[in-house]
Amino acid sequence: MRNILVVEDDIDINNLLVEILRENNYEVEGAYTAREALLIMKMKHFDLILLDLMMPNMTGEEFISTVRENNNIAIIVISAKIGIETKVEVLKKGADAFIEKPFNREEVLAQVEATIRRYKDYSGTVDEMLTFKEISLDKSAVEVKVENEVVKLTPIEYNILKLLISNVNKIFTKENIYSSVWEERYAYDADTINSHMSNLRNKLKKVNGKDYIGTIWGMGYRLK
């Protein structure tokens, strides 16, 4: 059974999300502040976090940054802050998906299922090493290195890189990437893809200054 942590300061919304998830056979804990959530995470393993942004003491954005310092757990943001800038910011900080409030029950369940499935693929144990120039991707250890320096990636970033490095000479459109990594029909969510691609490019580039991801204007992306 998959464990999910709901972090939401509104008691009614928190209870509703917990109820929806438990009815669908997830084991769920609820936290009403980000600091409470961090304490709970020290005592129990979770597969996914559903996170509100507007909370007291520590915001959702600050919580994501704190978690991403040493944890690659899947994070879905559910928020009434629906501006493009907010969405791009949380994706760059390391969130895997964004659901707008008021939310739809079916959308929440679909996003949870898809995100956990992607994370399961990310945590797979296939004994295979993929390489491109100074990049190595160890599928058995679920680890990426550039010039033997470990690069910490989120599950989405890891799966995008795995897709690109498995097909070095292929140009992937945004639709290709979305369909392969998110495993669902592309709905022209360009901001989401752009944010994850930017994060991945910057993390790889940080090691030695080299840009490994090429943008083919009007077509898509490939390694270069």
TrEMBL record:
GO biological process terms on file: regulation of DNA-templated transcription
Organism: Anaerosphaera aminiphila DSM 21120
UniProt keyword list: DNA-binding, Phosphoprotein, Transcription, Transcription regulation, Two-component regulatory system
DNA-binding region: 127-224
Record has Phosphoprotein as a keyword: yes
Domain OmpR/PhoB-type: 127-224
Cross-referenced SUPFAM superfamilies: CheY-like (SSF52172)
Coiled coil (UniProt feature): none
CC per GO annotation: cytosol; protein-DNA complex
GO molecular function, one term: transcription cis-regulatory region binding
Pfam family, one: Trans_reg_C
Positions bearing 4-aspartylphosphate: 52
Protein name: DNA-binding response regulator, OmpR family, contains REC and winged-helix (WHTH) domain
InterPro entries: CheY-like_superfamily, OmpR/PhoB-type_DNA-bd, Sig_transdc_resp-reg_receiver, WalR-like, WH-like_DNA-bd_sf
Residue ranges occupied by any Response regulatory domain in the UniProt entry: 3-116
Presence of the UniProt keyword Phosphoprotein in the record: yes
